[in-house]
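Long-time lurker, first post. I've been practising inverse folding by hand and with some scripts of my own, and I keep getting stuck on stretches where the structure tokens seem ambiguous. Below is the full token string for one chain I'm working on. Before anyone asks, I'm not after the true native sequence, just a reasonable design that respects the backbone. If someone could post their per-position residues I'd love to compare against what I wrote down in my notebook.
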């Protein structure tokens, strides 16, 4: 079981109790997202980028924890932050476009640097509960610009709730491009971390898995929980609920293993990132 979406929410590093809670929820591995930039609304305290990076890497000394550094792409030293994070050994980057579009020229320049380093990006997508006007930056189609970043691997989190249909359509476009030229094309992943309310969960998973797109190697499980107060019941409930839905949809055990673990490893680059995919054809 691989949880692809856990937030560090405290400067206090308490690895043992956190790992104990992961084990209680049946989670073996996880992506940890660093403390947010100090201008983000959830930031409890202001930390330098270096302090946030040090905190992240200290957390990820434990086996099975993979560090993603959260960077504000419009900060004056965004490129230096990325370079420093790569130097420290991060596995990927976290980005929330809360005051800019992904197509911003400065942001695109940083995306190219990350792609050239072979690292993935986990984006927030969908409605953002931040008390300000920001949804316009996070609609799935605003990430179409990433087609211009060769070899990038990226995931849109929360199934882009409530624009799930738009997410599926966008995935089809990226799948088409990847299938035409997998050596250079961008690869898109779908992060099913909650955002979708429970009553919509089966509908969204059904659309993703039955639309006819080759998606089984590109969908991730995550909890959106936190290190300080990891919610074992929440995570276990989502695991159980998703497994029941996927079983109802007729997925094999191998496909479920991809969903709950294997795809996250591929997203991180821990396993061969290239898979053969069926190209969506006109009229199908």
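-- Answer (accepted) --
I ran through it position by position. Result:
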């Amino acid at each position: 079981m691989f949880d692809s979406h856990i937030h560090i929410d405290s400067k206090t590093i308490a690895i043992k109790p956190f790992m104990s809670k992961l084990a209680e929820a049946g989670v073996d591995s996880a992506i940890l997202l660093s403390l947010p930039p100090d201008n983000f609304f959830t930031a409890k305290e202001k930390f330098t980028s270096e302090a946030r990076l040090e905190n992240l890497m200290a957390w990820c000394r434990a086996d099975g924890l993979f560090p993603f550094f959260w960077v504000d792409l419009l900060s004056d030293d965004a490129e230096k932050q990325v370079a420093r994070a790569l130097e420290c050994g991060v596995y990927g980057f976290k980005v929330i476009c809360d005051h800019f579009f992904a197509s911003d020229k400065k942001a695109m320049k940083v995306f190219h640097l990350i792609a050239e380093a072979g690292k993935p990006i986990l984006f927030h997508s969908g409605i953002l509960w931040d008390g300000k006007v920001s949804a316009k930056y996070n609609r799935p189609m605003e990430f179409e610009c990433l087609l211009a970043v060769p070899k990038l691997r990226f995931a849109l989190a929360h199934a882009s709730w409530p624009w799930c249909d738009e997410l599926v359509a966008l995935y089809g476009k990226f799948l088409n491009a990847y299938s035409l030229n997998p050596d250079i094309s961008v690869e898109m992943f779908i992060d099913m971390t909650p955002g979708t309310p429970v009553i919509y969960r089966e509908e969204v998973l059904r659309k993703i898995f039955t639309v006819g797109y080759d998606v089984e190697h590109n969908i991730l499980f995550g909890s959106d929980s936190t290190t300080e107060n990891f919610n074992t019941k929440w995570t276990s409930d989502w695991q159980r609920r998703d497994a029941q839905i996927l079983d109802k949809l007729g997925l094999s055990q191998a496909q479920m293993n991809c969903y709950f673990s294997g795809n996250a490893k591929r997203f991180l680059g821990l396993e061969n990132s290239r898979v053969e995919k069926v190209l969506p054809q006109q009229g199908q």
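A couple of notes from the structure itself: Residues 73-268 form a domain with the TIM Barrel fold (CATH 3.20.20.140). The longest strand covers residues 2-7. Happy to go over any region you disagree with.
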